[in-house]
């Protein structure tokens, strides 16, 4: 039996924090509020845009009754220029090429809205690698509930499963799904690596390939 690898997107394959921060700050500017530091916005990333906007609202003291409205405004700003400042992490293409050449099936499981995720994959010519994309709005549940990840693996067929991510949310998702978790240490996590459940860590594409090889006994 060969393997399937499902990846988180933001903070794992792409560094989208600058565009996410820009969208948040555009929304805040519309409301007459000062911009937040990118590091502050990045610390809110992981549970999807609804959760992120809620944390922003609380942080600056906006009215939580406007949560839905301000989330929509933030998403609209993001969708207008979601790839302007985003970059694919170095070595990602090489790793994906390697896995594809070996016949591994690959998918995406992110808490970003599915349409936004697909847009970014297309913008960076990454969609060709992935047979399934599960976003934060694809199901009624999102990570760290294991259902989105399990749905992604189900779509890829009966294979050995590996999940690759960068955050506390991803680590919990993998643990609840009972699958090996490879942790990218240069993503958006807030917790020390030693405190996150993981099978192995990596900080570049060579490390990712080596970790997958070790899991598969290659």
Give structural notes.
By secondary structure, the chain is an alpha/beta fold. It folds into two domains: 3-15 and 86-216, HAD superfamily/HAD-like (Rossmann fold); 17-80, Orthogonal Bundle (DNA polymerase, domain 1), CATH 1.10.150. It contains nine helices and eight strands. It has helices at residues 17-30, 38-42, 49-60, 67-80, 92-101, 114-123, 147-156, 168-177, 205-216; strands at 3-7, 14-15, 87-88, 105-109, 132-134, 160-165, 181-184, 200-202. The strands form two sheets. The protein has a six-stranded parallel β-sheet, sandwiched between helices. Helix 8 (168-177) links the parallel strand 6 (160-165) and strand 7. The mean pLDDT is 95.
Q: What's the layout of helices and strands?
A:
Elements: E1 3-7, E2 14-15, H1 17-30, H2 38-42, H3 49-60, H4 67-80, E3 87-88, H5 92-101, E4 105-109, H6 114-123, E5 132-134, H7 147-156, E6 160-165, H8 168-177, E7 181-184, E8 200-202, H9 205-216
Parallel strand pairs: 1-4, 1-6, 4-5, 6-7, 7-8
Antiparallel strand pairs: 2-3
CATH superfamily (homologous) name of the largest domain: HAD superfamily/HAD-like
Low-confidence stretches: none
Tell me the domain tally.
Answer: 2
Distance between the termini: 13 Å
* Overall strand count: 8
Architecture of the largest domain in CATH?
Answer: 3-Layer(aba) Sandwich
Work out the radius of gyration: 17 Å
CATH topology call of the largest domain: Rossmann fold
Shape: elongated
Described by strand count, sense and barrel closure, the largest sheet is:
6 strands, parallel
Listing every helix as H and every strand as E from the N terminus to the C terminus, the arrangement reads EEHHHHEHEHEHEHEEH
Within the largest sheet, what's the order of strands?
5-4-1-6-7-8
Secondary structure: helix percent? 40-55%
Instruction: Report strand %.
Output: 5-15%
Report the mean per-residue pLDDT as an integer.
Answer: 95
Tally of contiguous helical segments? 9
Coarse structural class: alpha/beta
